[in-house]
Amino acid sequence: MKNKYTKLFSNTAIFTAGKFISKLIVLFMLPFYTSCLSSAEYSSADLITNLCNLIIPIACLGVSEGIFRGAAMRQSDKEAFFTNGSVIMLAGSAVFLVLSPILELSDYFSPYVWLIVLYVLASNIHSVCSQYVCAIGKSKLFALQGVLNTILIVLLNILFLALWDMGVTGYVLSVAVADFASAVFVFFVAGLYRAFKPSKIDFKIIKELMRFCLPLIPSTVFWWITGVSDRYLVAYICSDEVNGLYSVAYKIPTLLTYVVVIFNDAWKLSAVSESDNIEECTNFYSRVFRYYQAIMFMGGACIAVASPLLSIILFADSYYSAWIYVPVLSAATVFTALDTFFGSAYFTVKKTGMSFFTAFFGALINIILNLIMIPKWGAMGASIATFISYFLVFFVRALTMHRFIPFKIYPIKIIVNTVLICALSVVMTAYGGNIYGIVISVIILLICLAYNLRDIYVGIKDVITTLKSRKSA
Prior knowledge:
Layout: H1 2-27, H2 30-36, H3 39-59, H4 63-72, H5 78-99, H6 113-135, H7 139-163, H8 167-189, H9 192-195, H10 203-213, H11 216-237, H12 240-249, H13 254-273, H14 278-314, H15 326-348, H16 352-377, H17 379-400, H18 411-431, H19 435-472
């Protein structure tokens, strides 16, 4: 059992060094972005990149996840999974190139079609290379390429936005160029040219990858609808200026999302490699989820209370009013994190069909709520709709998960924490602009801390104990 925790903590530490530091650098670039781009320009850049994020898994048929799942298994032929996965990615990219002129039909995106194509192709190549490197245990290289990618994005942003004043094009192009350069770096440093072996092209493996990956594509699309479609509706129903504020407000809760992404990378690697024994896997999930949910609720509460201060630090003055959306979005992000944890369980036991069903349910609810709430309450309606959607997906996944991995979800803790973070979001949204609202919010935050302190303490203690045992071994 200790080996499982050692591996998880080790992977998390490595990914934290690479990804979290990288993501923090990008986050602290927000003052730069908001000073170089107007709210309308920021809205356009955000809508373009999010459209790309929708197309990315479709264009490569979601194969990077399949490569990771196959190559991470102990007894698998890792090179065969990389080779056949790369073939699928290249075929999907070729089809995407042929169909890309369809994007010209949109007046909004037609000037940027070449940029969207470049962004999608570079991201898919980067994803396939980096996921394979992670799956075969080269965690340090995976973290290093993440840092390199971030440094390149920052440098290119400074060049394209500050020096060349390229606006929206410069913002998006910097990410595409950085992804391509990072992919080239990984490809040669990890010697992936040796892992790609045409002799190992096998239609049985291609079929296996497709069977695993194809359900993930609609799941990804539905998650995109739940998490991103509201921004398109806000831009359409309200304005690009309002959506610019709403989009930048989303960046503060991403502090918590970064933790989720880092943990999920490490967690998938540990869970997949230890998924043979369902009883041990169940105990592993139960123990980790206890710490995970406590940290997520506590983190969401802290971000909600600190949102006015973080907005002063991270946004240009013209964007400061965006903080009003942050408390509700922070609560939504907590449930995004819990949904992601359950999604990793579906991933581990290869029940990607359940990911599809629950993601579809969340997307449907989100669209209905957005169409009702945005015309009434603008961007605030969108943030509330997002929270409700993620909460309902969590509820459905919690009810169905026991069929596959019956780990404990601690329902009383979830209920109490949900009440606390909802109360905190309401108080901050309604009264966070005055001292009385701040005082009440801090009191709720302290109650949340007291309630979760033991679980957080036990989790930290387990980490320290595990690391000591690893050191002495």
